[in-house]
Design goal:
This protein has 277 residues and is α/β, with parallel strands linked by helices. The chain has 10 helices and 7 strands. The chain has a single domain, classed as Rossmann fold (3-Layer(aba) Sandwich), CATH 3.40.50.970. The longest helix has 22 residues.
């Protein structure tokens, strides 16, 4: 897909997220919307994955370490054909496979996540395995910025740099908000870029809601030999829906009927439920 097509796809995924959360009456709305562009870029513009061969040996690996923001991932897997679209209607319902965090009983999910701070270490192990097997796949892991307060993140950072895992790309959804408020009030991260560089990583900072910037940051030709890469993706929590953007209360919140209708209108739906893309 070109950049315009990716932007259109991200808007569709955002609509699907709002629909998913509204129907289920549960969901992490703010972080799901902030990370949509990142996951859209990865699945439609960067990663080597195949819904017809979800276990193929040389597939790229993706770990959603901030597992509570699973909604865009479920919507993307359904859109690509890893799962049937009708299964989205079961999200967070009794007996479903599509629970509120990634579930590796579902095709396309590498590991169960949601206990914050674990994803980077597992992704580092996958990247090291690829090195030892002389395999060409890359491993991507998406973390939250609130998650950076977990000590295990920094253990994983040391490990990846020590083993020169230049086939590993970590992304931080830097929306500057977490469940209890601003990250800088809860547990300050700055100077954030400097810290990761000091741990031996190649670091790039981009607008995480800018599709072109994301695609450039993920490009293989920007690989730094012998260093894992960290992409600090500066995003807006709740991106795409005006009354949700930068509102801490929307970390986990369900829209009312009026809010649902407004959100769908802002995301490009016209009356009657038909989109104009």
């Amino acid at each position: 897909m070109d950049i315009k097509q990716l932007e259109v796809k991200a808007r569709k995924i955002r609509r699907d997220i709002i629909q998913l959360i509204y129907d289920a009456k549960t969901g992490h709305t703010g972080g799901a919307l902030s990370s949509t562009d990142i996951m859209t870029a990865l699945y439609y513009g960067v990663m080597n994955v195949d819904p017809q061969k979800p276990e193929m040996k040389n597939r790229d690996r993706f770990i959603l370490s901030k597992g509570h923001s699973v909604e865009p991932l479920w919507c993307i897997l359904a859109d690509q054909g890893f799962i049937k679209s009708d299964e989205l209607k079961t999200f967070s319902q009794f007996g479903t496979r599509l629970i509120g965090h990634p579930n590796n009983k579902v095709a396309g999910i590498e590991m169960n996540t949601g206990s914050l701070g674990h994803g980077l270490s597992v992704a580092s192990g996958m990247a090291l395995a690829a090195k030892k097997d002389q395999a060409s796949y890359r491993t991507f892991v998406l973390m939250g910025d609130g998650e950076q307060a977990e000590g295990s993140v920094w253990e994983g950072a040391l490990f990846a740099a020590h083993y020169k895992l230049d086939n590993l790309v970590a992304i931080v959804d830097r929306n500057k908000l977490q469940i209890s408020g601003l990250t800088e009030d809860v547990m300050g991260l700055e100077p954030f870029l400097d810290k990761w560089q000091a741990f031996g990583w190649a670091v790039v900072e981009v607008d995480g809601n800018n599709m072109e910037a994301l695609i450039k940051a993920f490009a293989k030709e920007h690989k730094v030999e012998g260093k894992p890469k960290l992409i600090i993706a500066n995003t807006t929590k709740g991106k795409g829906v005006s009354f949700i953007e930068n509102q801490p209360a929307w970390h986990h919140k369900v829209p009312t009927e009026d809010q649902y209708n407004q959100a769908m209108k802002e995301l490009g739906l016209v009356k009657g439920g038909k989109g104009h893309e």
